Amino acid sequence: MAVISMCQIALLTFVLTLSISNPAATNFPLTGEALSSFIEHPFDFALGMTRKDVLKSLGAPVKEARSTRQNPHDPTVTDVFYTFQYDGLEVRTGEFPGASPPAAGLILVVFTNGKYKLKHHLQVGSSKKDVQRVLGWPETEFGMAMWTYQGDEAGYVWLTFTFHNEQVSRIEWSQTWD
């Protein structure tokens, strides 16, 4: 029969208390590269990267808008942006002809209802605990109502969850294109 010393009991109590009081120690299935990969490509449905890809994946939007801006690095070049509105989903793409080579890609995806999901079953309507279980504590908190996760070290990709009554009410994925 094994005898447990008071020192062993104290150590075990400390470890258990630490695990319970610090959910980050046990509730983060995604860390490092896996977390970055999830944040950079969180969608649980085919979306693509360009205007053509979005239309092929999601079909005709309820509403579509086109806008332009003067490229900040080359005033002779015009960047083009497309915004697509679907039921519970907004998608914005950009075309950057001044890049070398010319580039196009997603800029913004906003989820406002549970029709579309992220990987690991996160969606509008998920609990705050579900978000924490999958992604851990956020890198940035705006009160208890908004959590933001950064996807890459350069800071070009973000995933933001907005909460209402401890439930996700909005998810915003954004990527900066310079």
Characterise the protein shown here:
This protein has 178 residues and is α+β, with helices and mostly antiparallel strands. The chain has a single domain, classed as protein yfey like fold (Sandwich), CATH 2.60.460. Helix content is 23%, strand content 33%. It has helices at 6-21, 32-40, 51-58, 128-135; strands at residues 63-70, 78-86, 89-96, 103-111, 140-142, 146-150, 157-164, 167-175. It has an eight-stranded antiparallel beta sheet, with helices on one face. A hairpin with a 7-residue loop joins strand 1 (63-70) and strand 2. The longest helix is centred in the N-terminal third of the chain and has 16 residues, at 6-21. It is globular and about 50 Å long. The termini are far apart. 17% of the residues are buried. Residues 1-28 have low confidence and may be disordered.
The dominant shape is globular
Low-confidence segments, ≥5 residues, pLDDT <50?
1-28
Using the coordinates shown, work out and report the CATH topology: protein yfey like fold
Q: What's the number of helices?
A: 4
Compile the SSE list and pairings.
Blueprint (H helix, E strand, L loop, with lengths): L5 H16 L10 H9 L10 H8 L4 E8 L7 E9 L2 E8 L6 E9 L16 H8 L4 E3 L3 E5 L6 E8 L2 E9 L3
Antiparallel strand pairs: 1-2, 2-3, 3-4, 4-8, 5-6, 6-7, 7-8
In short:
The protein is α+β, with helices and mostly antiparallel strands. The protein has one domain: protein yfey like fold.
